[in-house]
Write a structure and sequence with these properties.
Blueprint lengths: L5 E6 L6 H6 L4 E3 L6 H9 L6 E6 L6 E14 L23 E16 H6 L17 E4 L1 H11 L5
Parallel strand pairs: 1-3
Antiparallel strand pairs: 1-6, 2-5, 3-4, 4-5
The chain binds a DNA duplex through loops.
DNA sequence: GCCAACGTTGGC
DNA sequence: GCCAACGTTGGC
């Protein structure tokens, strides 16, 4: 059994929020629309069933990690990539040779309180997160177990 | 709404 | 293969 890994997924809540995920049937959704090779490679090569996912709201008020999820289906072809009506349609991708991949995630729990970007920026234990690197725009990114533990612990403690 | 950072595209 | 132009991300 490989060691559990941890990830942070960004989403603009005006497009798709954590509430939207929890409202899905079985709280499970296809994470489609990723059109960045680095992110695609991580989904394809590194994400395994059971890996932990922090759900982060970008371009939001507030910008914050709002809850947890986990991987329930490992990488497979993102069928929206060859759908001309899809927002992230890519004419170079097709069912015979899919360029883009996605995973499925299942929402777990909403934090008792949101852990905001400003809070992450000043937390000495979270200074290595890609999230706070200038210009780091990866929509899915790896985090360490320590970072996961820290944010989950803060998120579940209303008094922290 | 602005714009810095960065990935992608396409002419050469 | 270089690199300028362009588009997007996403914090501010």
């Amino acid at each position: 059994m490989a060691e559990r890994k941890y990830w942070l997924f960004k989403s603009e809540p005006s497009t798709y929020s954590f509430t939207d995920l929890l409202n899905e049937e079985d709280q499970t959704a296809e994470w489609d629309g990723v059109r960045n090779y680095q992110a695609r490679n991580m989904m394809r090569d590194d994400m395994k069933i059971g890996d932990g996912v922090l759900f982060y709201h970008s371009n939001a008020k507030p910008m914050a990690v709002v809850g947890t999820a986990h991987i329930v289906k490992e990488a497979y072809a993102d069928h929206t990539s060859w759908d001309p009506k899809a927002k992230y349609y890519d004419p170079k991708s097709n069912p015979d040779s899919p360029t883009w991949m996605m995973v499925d995630i299942k929402g777990d729990e909403r934090f008792a309180r949101e852990i905001t970007l400003p809070e992450i920026k000043v937390n000495p234990n979270l200074q290595n997160m890609l999230l706070i690197r200038r210009g780091m725009r990866l929509s899915v990114q790896p985090i360490t177990k320590d970072e996961w533990d820290e944010i989950v612990s803060l998120g579940n403690d209303v008094d922290s």
